[in-house]
Amino acid sequence: MRSDSSGDGIAPAGSTADVGARLTRWKAGFLFLLAAVLVAGFAVMVWIVVDEVQTSRYQARRLAAFDRKLQFALHPGSSDAIRFPGSGPYDQRLGYHPLPRFLERLTAQDWQITEQARMSTDLVGVIDHGLFAPYAEKNQAGFELLDCRAEPFFSVRMPQQVYGRFEAIPPRIVNALLFIEDRDLLDAQQSRRNPAVNWSRFARALVDQVRGWMDPDHHTPGGSTLATQIEKFRHSPGGRTESAQDKWFQMASASLRAYIDGEHTLSRRRQIVVNYLDTVPLAARPGIGEIHGLGDALAAWYGRDFEEVNALLIAEADDAKAPAGMLVRQALAFKQVLSLLIAQRRPSYYLAQAAGRADLTDLANAHLRLLSDAGVISPALRAVQADQAGGKEIERGGCRASQESEEKNVHSFAFPFPRF
Question: In which element (H, E) is residue 418 found?
């Protein structure tokens, strides 16, 4: 007990209460400050996440910088820093997967490797972690025989019919594909967009998966983008997604591939559209084999000439100056293309089975209504489509094509080999 100024040795009665009040105020102030910091920190985190979802700014910078470390170059002799592709359909079809076995058999017969690729440490690490090597893959493969004058004697390409360039694709096909798969893929305002992830679609797919666990009858569509679908049907074993790990490998690989040209991805996103349309697997037919790409599928499943279909879909058929019957032919061509874009979900069922073809017709008609309501196709084109529907399966061939010309298209599509 301390003395006060009056000298009676007793502290003022209110001093203890004052100290308690001050402590209470300090405690309240501290808690308020702490809460304010936490709220501000949370707000900043939300802003960062929202900004990243909308712009992909951070991942674009980091992934583009990392991609610059993923290098390979030819060097003399055998390589001690190389990895070969896995067992994905693309890697098997183009002969990349069995390369180690070919090299082993050749070296056993005294052949020597004069040059071989050496990969950077980071690229080796990426592949060893299960991701697919990020490089600009080719869509078309084949071989060419030259005669004694070095002129082409025979050549074959798989797929036979491809676009090759984004500018060659009719806008109606691009718009229909994006409406079905990823409507913001080619948004020029999002110059750094990561095409491997569509966040709204991904979140919706997660919600549907949770509902699917609780209700087995609930339909659970996937959240894959065009970029991850390409990784799947090219490089995942069997061209399928069997686990969450497979999905992670596809998304991570597609993200790395998206930024191989730098932070701005619009040109890569356009190339994704080309890659998808040129190589999407669309079942198989006897006498033809596996069918890849929209061009070959139009010939194999509908007996259509690729150039004719593209010309029809580029034309302004609902213009008053258009030739008579042009709109009808364009409507049929568009419906055939649309059906193939839908069929990629279950190609063997939708294209090779009678029940599947009937279901595919219903799906195509439903999509046509949605495309018309969204303004993707003109009301005139939709009106012709409605007149053509009539509960029938999608017709083969063009409106002017005879059965003979249709069969010619299909048979000329089968791969010819030379006789010597």
Answer: none
